[in-house]
Amino acid sequence: METEKIFISADRRAKIIAWIVIVIFFLIYYTVMAMLAPAKKMETLRREYGYKQDVNNPTDDRIFTDSTYLDLLHKKSFLQSRVTMAATDSIYLSISLPDSTLKLEISGVTVHRAQIRRINISTLFSGSDNYIILSMLSSPLTISRNFSSIKKEPLMIRMAPKDTSEYVPDIIPDTADYEPVNYIMEMDNGIRLHIYQEDKLKPCDGLYRSLFDIYHRMRYAAKIFLRVITFRVPEYQPYIKLRIPRSDAKIIYRALPEKGQIALYF
Predict the structure, then answer these.
(1) Which of 30, 84, 120, 180 could connect to 208 by a Cys-Cys bridge, CB 3.0–4.6 Å?
(2) Other C-beta atoms within 10 Å of 114: how many?
């Protein structure tokens, strides 16, 4: 009887050790695949936006590390995007990170301005080939889909009075006005723009922002996991996270069309 217990115990230990080895192997594999994602994304951008050397008129590569040239290229890319968007009749968003400003514009005219309180950007933008990033930003970014804590077009249903004698002015405040405002806009090239409210009108506003961020981190992690288990390198999505006043965040989100465009200046 004791011998049987020893065999059972040894068999159980072997199974536990085997599962531990499998989990460790998978975690290592998952980490390696996740680390390869930014490099793969940068290689894709390099093929699409990298400088193509002209054999007949070669350019000195040192110019791409010159700060004055890169600064002019920054401004040129930003202006090109704004000129392209100004040619449309739609409202669009211009983001200038050096000035910490967001501007809603129509045909080149600013209709609303917001101040950025906090900025957090992906390392792909700060530690990569500047020429490639600037070439990518020389054309407007187009929003492909949104994830938000508020409705894009809020609806309010009211019963119309039969005549003026039944009319009662509004005395009930709009409860939707107290909803926390946090949203993510995914661009057609994979960039994610996170805009969160900075101010805390209620004690739970910070918690709502954290839960909103965690939920979408998990959604992104699930997409990575599905690609990893099918032996594919995950698709890396560079991000820009901005915190702005709540009222400005709501105005910007509801003013932009579903497939709106954005110009970005680093």
Answers:
(1) 180
(2) 21
